Amino acid sequence: MRNSEESRHGFRLESPDGSGVDTVTHESAESGLRVLVLAPTPFFGDRGCHVRIYEEVRSLAGRGVRCAIVTYPTGRDLPDLEILRARSVAGIEAGPLGFSPGRPILDASLFVTAELAVRRFRPDLIHAHLHEGIAIGVLLRWWHRIPLIADLQGSLVAEMVDQGVLSAAGLLAGGLGRVEQWLVRQPDHILTSSGHGLALLEEQGAPRARLSALPDGVDLDTFQPQPSDQLLRDQLSLGDKRVVVFLGVLTDYQGVDLLVEIAARLARERADVHLLVMGYPNEERYRATAVARGLGEVMTFPGRIPYAEASRWLGLGTVAISPKRSLTEANGKLLNYMACGLPVVASDTPVNRELLGEHGVYASVGDADAFALRIGELLDHPTHARARGGALRRRAETMFAWPALAERLESVYRAALE
C-alpha cells in the first residue's frame, strides 16, 4: 500500500525488479552511487533527449550506480528503470515536445516530487537534464547540499527560436537569454553532447573548468546492421524500391518540410526510390502535404516507432538522412544510423561533423537540391555507399559505445563528490 506521503503527492518508487514500492533508506541501499535524475519532460518518448537519459541510466546501472528518474506525469514507463512521476494537474499536460504554456506548472509539481524523493532516496548527487532541470536542481542543492550535475544538448533560447515560439530579435528572447546565462553558471559541472556545445556554454559565461563534452552514445546491441525485413517491406508496399530512411521528431526545424522537397526532386529523376519518414508528432500534417504534392506513393509516414523496434525499421534503409536545421542541438539519430551501418547524408553543421567525421556525406543546411544530389550519388554507387556505412559502424563502436561513455560519466560524478 502507499503511505500517506505517496498518496498526497502521487508517486511511488519502484523496486529494481518492478515488484512494488521500495521504501528506500540510505542504510539499506545497494553499494555504489545513488543519483536522482531530473527529467522535466514526458519521459519516455522514443526520441533524442529521452534516449540519452535512458541509455545513461541503463549503462550506469551496469557499473553499480543506482538512478531514480523524476519526470512529468505523462510518458511511457519502462520496466528496467525506477521512475517517479510528478503529480498530474487538472487541465495541464505537456505537449510531446517543445514549449507549452502548462510546463511551468508541471515543473512546480516535479519540484515537489523531487524534494520528497531527495528525502527518501537519499541521493549522493543530482543529475539535471534541460534548463528547467537546472532550475529545480539549484533549489534542491541549496536546501540539501547535494552536488548538481547538468546535462544540456543545446541552447534553450535557440531551440525556442527554431521551434517558432520566440523571435530571435524579440525582447522575450533577450530576457530569457539572460536567465539562460545565469542558469548555466550554477551547476557544479555541465555535460554537453558536443565540442560545439562547449563553445556555446563558454560564450554564455559557464566556467570552462566545469564543462565536459560527453557525446550521445548508442547501444550497439540494440542498433546493428541487419537484413531488410521482408514482412515490413510487404506491410509498407515497398516492393523492390530503395529506401531513404529518417527517424526522429517530425518538425520543420528537424528539416521534415525539406524532406518533402527532397522527395519531389528524387521522384522527378528516379522511379525506384521511396522515403520512409518515421517519428512523431505531426505525421498526419506531413502526410497530407506529401499527398497534396503528388508524393503519396513516394513517401510513407508510419508514425511513432518504439525504441526497441527502431533498428528493425532502419534496416529497411539503403541511405539514412538528417536535414536538421538547428546549429546548436545534438543529433542523436545519427548514432543510430551509424550503428546500423547505414551511409548518412546530413546537414553540414559542426555537431553533425563531430559525429560522422570524414565518413559522413554533407549537404548545405536547407538545400533540397544538394541533399537530393548527395543521395543520388550514394544510390548510384552502392559499393561506395556500403563502405561508408561500414566505416560509420566502426566509428560508432570505437567512439560512441555506452560502456566507455558511462565510465566517463561516473568519473564526472566522483569528481563532483570530491
Could you list some keywords that capture this structure?
globular, alpha/beta, 418 residues, 6-stranded parallel beta sheet
Radius of gyration: 22 Å
Biggest sheet: strand arrangement: 3-2-1-4-5-6-7
Gap from first CA to last CA: 39 Å
Query: What structural class do helix, strand and pairing data support?
Result: alpha/beta
Shape: globular
Number of distinct beta strands: 13
Number of helices: 16
Describe this structure in words.
The strands form two sheets. This protein has a seven-stranded parallel beta sheet with strand order 3-2-1-4-5-6-7, with helices on both faces. A six-stranded parallel beta sheet has the order 10-9-8-11-12-13, with helices on both faces. With 418 residues, it is α/β, with parallel strands linked by helices. The chain starts with a helix and ends with a helix. Helix 7 (195-203) links the parallel strand 6 and strand 7 (211-213). The protein contains 16 helices and 13 strands. The longest helix is centred in the first third of the chain and has 19 residues, at 103-121.
Kindly summarize this structure in a few lines.
With 418 residues, the protein is of the alpha/beta class. The protein is 43% helix and 15% strand.
